């Protein structure tokens, strides 16, 4: 295991690269930093555990959850952002095609921060029913998608 305690796992949109990411920090160390691609699959390997392979990072990530419900929620969000990644890739390709055409102007740059949280807060998975802190903050920070045990290993 990469972490022996519950950690926050969040989905982000990286506007610089026009990609969606799954990121988890244990303190200041990134234990998950995975770019979601349209060909990825999240597999439920047991009632409370699931995993996905990130071929770019040559890593298989696994998450253990405290309940089947939380695993299902994570799997639903994974599928949602996998589809969003597919659409973002298509949109990015369209922008590239437009940029190569002399009659088209390049789209204006985005003013948002490079990493933007894309998930609303969900309940903690640490045995309590407390809702995650959603206090506004001027810094771009993740909204927890799931708190779970993270496991990573290279194939």
UniProtKB/TrEMBL annotation:
Keyword Cytoplasm: yes
Entries under Pfam families matching the protein: WH1
Cellular location(s): Cytoplasm; Postsynaptic density
Region (Disordered): 87-155
GO function terms (MF aspect): G protein-coupled glutamate receptor binding
Residue span(s) of domain WH1: 1-85
Bilayer-crossing regions: none
Keyword annotations from UniProtKB, A to Z: Coiled coil, Cytoplasm, Synapse
Entry similarity comment: Belongs to the Homer family.
Protein name: Homer 1
């Amino acid at each position: 295991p990469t972490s022996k305690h519950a950690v926050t796992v969040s989905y982000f949109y990286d506007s610089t690269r026009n990609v969606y990411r799954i990121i988890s920090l244990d303190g200041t160390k990134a234990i998950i930093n995975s770019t979601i691609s349209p060909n990825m699959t999240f597999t439920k390997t047991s009632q409370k555990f699931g995993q996905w392979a990130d071929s770019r990072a040559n890593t298989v990530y696994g998450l253990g959850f405290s309940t089947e419900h939380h695993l299902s929620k994570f799997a639903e969000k994974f599928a949602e952002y996998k589809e969003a990644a597919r659409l973002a890739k298509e949109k990015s390709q369209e922008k590239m095609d437009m940029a190569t055409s002399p009659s088209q102007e390049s789209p204006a740059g985005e003013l948002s921060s490079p990493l933007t949280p894309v998930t609303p807060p969900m309940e903690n998975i640490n045995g309590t029913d407390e809702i995650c802190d959603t206090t506004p903050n001027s810094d771009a920070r993740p909204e927890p998608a799931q708190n779970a045990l993270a496991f990573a290993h290279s194939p």
